[in-house]
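User: My instructor asked us to take a sequence, write out its structure as tokens, and then describe one feature of it. I'm not sure where to start. Here is the sequence I was given:
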Amino acid sequence: MTQGFRPDSFYAFDRCEECGMCLFRCPSLGLTLQRAREEMRRLRLGEPAHLIDRRCASCFSCNTWCPNGCDPYGLILYRWFERYRRIGLPVRALPAMPLEKGNTTDMAMRRHTPRERDMVEEWRRNARDPGRVEEAGGTVLYAGCNALMFPSLLDTSLLGGLTVMGEKELCCGEVYFRLGLFDVVERQARVLEERFRRLGVRKLVVFCSAGYNMLSDILPRLFGARFDFRTEYLGDYLLRRIKSGELTMGRLEGLRAAVSDTCHGKVLGRRFLEVPRRLLNEIGLEVAEMPRSREYSVCCGAACGARRCSPLDMGRQALAQWEEARRSGADMLVTYCATCLLLLHIGRTLRPERLPLFHLMELLMESVGEEPPHRLLARRARGVFAGAMAAGAPLMLSRRRARL
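Assistant: Let's start with the prediction itself. The structure tokens for your sequence are:
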């Protein structure tokens, strides 16, 4: 046992047959079935699994393909947790940590427009005042780090007057989870428990797939979080309003969109993966699937930094995702995650792309006659990239390590 955590809390040792299919079918590792079996055996024994440490994209794919539902991703993260407790975290990872000073969310927030600053201040007040939550009937939209980077994505009538709440201190812990920093995730679970209980939240609509998965499954199941509210993904909320006639969408005919699926979407299942596609269909867009999509999709690059805390790994994977988009023959690339949006914009900064990139909310806004914040988002992503390079460059070669 390490700091109260046990490996069998994250992974079902008794159900695993060491068949290796989870690692063999991973789109990132590129292992033969024999090598996959060997790596799985090493993981189970707690021996060094060097191929995973060099190649794993921390993307949940292994969970998708495990025939016995053993949660091999949980075991990988547990081994990374052991490594973290043993030697700490490379300091070059600190700019990506949402709760640390000067992180990428801070870099984005420093570039907010006056309108966005007002929005975020209102979200902060909503996140601290039980009276505001009570006035909203206990139903609020959880913005999370994704929306704090790009508040304009929620500056829309599509929300139907939902009360939005969010501030940095209410981080869902997703980045820390993907790195195996379980003690940080557990601390954050307690913070969220206390805040949501004090505010009287009864229903939480969640902006991004990562936050939705953390709040609806990972924090309650793995970290014992007791939430007294129901969760709903924003995409489902919007589809429900469209089907009920509360929202009337315009049509953007004649265009084909490739969808960049999220890592969390894969484990949330096929029904969840269909939600952004159904929304695109509702506004007249045809989906042109990438060669690897849905359960087979590859990471945008964000989580690839988890294995070695290397921005280079993240950049290379973002370029690989752009290659997938080009091969689809689509007219545009669409993502439903703002972190994916950030990484994909960084990828096109590294190697310019003609294919336009949109967040799903931008297209939905355009379909109801609103001006999407397309250029603003692209400029902000480039600014965050420049800021991250400036902050991270001195740390890249440092051998110092930290514990959070």
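For the description part of your assignment, you could build on this observation: The chain has a mean pLDDT of 94. Try explaining in your own words what that tells you about the chain.
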